[in-house]
Amino acid sequence: MLASRHSRSIILILVIFVLAWLPMTKAQDKGSNKVSVDKSEDAKVAEEPEDSSKSSDGKSQSSVNSIHNLMEELRLANKQRKWSETIYTEEGWKMHGTSVKGRPLIYFTCGDRNENTTLMLSAVHGDEITPVYFGFRLVSWLKGEPDLCRDYRVVVAPLVNPDGYLRKKESRVNENGVDLNRNFPTRDFDELATKLWKTKFKSDPRRNPGTQGGSEPETQFQEWLINEFHPKKILTVHSPLNFFDYDGPEEDELRQFTKEYVESCKLLRAAVKKQASDYNFLNYGFFPGSLGNYAGKERGIPTMTLELPTVDASKAKTYFERLKKGTRELVVYKVKDPTTYSKSGSSPK
Questions:
Q1: Alpha helices for the chain (secondary structure H)
Q2: Cβ–Cβ contacts within 10 Å for residue 243, how many?
Q3: Does the domain at residues 59-332 carry the CATH identifier 3.40.630.10?
Q4: Exposure of 23 by Cβ count < 10 A (0-12 exposed, 13-18 middle, 19+ buried)?
Q5: Pick from 293, 291, 296: which is nearest to 249 by CA?
Q6: 51 with 60: CB under 8 angstroms?
Q7: What is the C-alpha R_g of the chain?
Q8: Which residues are registered as beta bridge partners of 236?
Q9: What is the 8-class DSSP label of residue 337?
Q10: Mean pLDDT, residues 49-61
C-alpha cells in the first residue's frame, strides 16, 4: 500500500511537470515562427523594386526609365516636324516631380553653383510648338559652350507642360485644364484671378487660372526651380506674338530695392534688346497668377518673356539661331545684388 501511494505521488509530479512544460514550448514555437516571418518580410523588402537602384550618375532607375520614355514620346511626336533627333539625347537630364499624367518634369543644369544664375523655361503652353524646339536646342547648344558652363550657371526646363504638348491635339492648358501661366500663387490670386478670368476673358477655358494658386504640379515645379536655384534672371519662351516683354523692379519700388539694382535690371533689358533687334520690346503687363507677376513683380527677379513670331515648326531652327547672341548676353550679364528685402519677406536672391 505504501508503494502504491509512492507511485501515485510520482505520477502526480510528472503530470504537473508536463502541464507546466507544454505552454512554454508553445510560446517558444510561436516566437520562432514570428522570427521566421520577420526574416521573410525583410528578404521581401530587400528584393523589392528596381526603382531604388541607382544608375552610374546617381539617378534612380525609375527616373532613368521615365526620362527615356519621355524622349521616345518626343521623337515619335516630332517625327513629322523633321527636327534633329540629337536634341533628344537622354544624357544630363534631371527630374523633379511629374506632370498630372505622370510624365517626368525635367531640367538641365550647366555650371556649378554661381551667383550669376539664369533660369530658362519653355513650352509652358503645350500648343506653342516652336518654344519646344527652342528649349531642347538650348540645352544641346549649352553642352557645346564650355565657357558658359565654366563661368556661369544656367538652368533649363525645356518642357514645362509635357501633357499639353503630347496630347493628340496640342493644348495650351495642362491635363487638368489649367493655364500654367495664370496659376502661380501671387498675392492677388485669391482676390482677382477668377474674377478677371470670368470678366475680362469671359471664362475662356484656355486661360483658366485654376481654383487655387499653385495647385498644379507643373506650377509647383517652376516654383521649386526658382526656390532651389535662386536665379538672378529668368527667360520664359512662348509664341506666337513676336515680342519681348519685361517684368521686374521699377523706379516706384525703390523702397524694396536699391536704385543700383533697379538700374542694372533695366540695363539687362537694354543689353538683350541690342542683341535681339528683330523683336519689339513691350511692357505687356502681368496678370494674377502669371510668372511675370510672381517672379518679376513680387520677387524682383528680372523676368523676360520671349514671344517667338509663329508656331511654325519649320521655322523653329531659324528663330533659335537668330537669338543665340541675345541668349548669350542674358547668361553673361551680371545683375547687381539687391540689398533690401522684398515684400514677401525673403531676399530675392
A1: 2-47, 61-77, 129-143, 146-151, 162-165, 194-199, 217-229, 259-275, 291, 316-332
A2: 15
A3: yes
A4: exposed
A5: 296
A6: yes
A7: 30
A8: 121, 305
A9: P
A10: 49
Q: Which residues, including other chains, have CB under 8 Å from residue 138's CB and lie 6 or more apart?
A: 120, 122, 156, 158, 320, 327
Q: What is the pLDDT of residues 233-269, one digit of tens each?
A: 999 999 999 999 999 887 555 456 788 888 898 899 8
User: How many residues in total does the chain contain?
Assistant: 349
Residue the block writes with cell 533695366: 266
Amino acid, res. 114: N
Distance CA 209, CA 195 (A): 10
pTM for the predicted model, two decimal places: 0.79
Residue of 130, 61, 118, 120 lying closest to 95 (CA atoms): 61
Task: Look at residue 332 and give its three-state secondary structure.
Answer: helix
C-alpha cell at 252: 516706384
Please give the Cα distance from 108 to 113 (Å, whole number): 13
How far from 80 is each of 12, 222, 272, 320, CA to CA, in Å?
Answer: 94, 29, 33, 19
The strand pairing partners of 233, in sequence order, are 118
Q: Under 8 Å CB-to-CB from 239, ≥6 apart: which residues?
A: 128, 129, 130, 131, 307, 308, 309, 310, 311
**How many other CB atoms are found less than 10 A from the CB of residue 18?**
9
Spatial distance between the Cα atoms of 26 and 141, rounded to a whole number of angstroms: 72
Read off the pLDDT of residues 273-315 as tens digits, 9 standing for 90 and up.
Answer: 888 888 887 777 779 999 999 999 999 999 999 999 999 999 9
The answer to whether the beta carbons of residues 348 and 337 sit under 8 Å apart is no
Instruction: Name the residue ranges covered by the structural domains of the chain.
Output: 59-332
Bridge partners (DSSP) listed for residue 43 = none
Torsional sign, CA 338, 341, 343, 346 = positive
Q: What's the longest Cα–Cα distance across the chain?
A: 126
Residue 213, all three cell numbers: 494658386
Q: Which residues pair with 202 in a beta bridge?
A: none
Nine-digit cell string for 329? 548676353
Name the one residue in this structure whose C-alpha cell is 515562427. Answer: 33
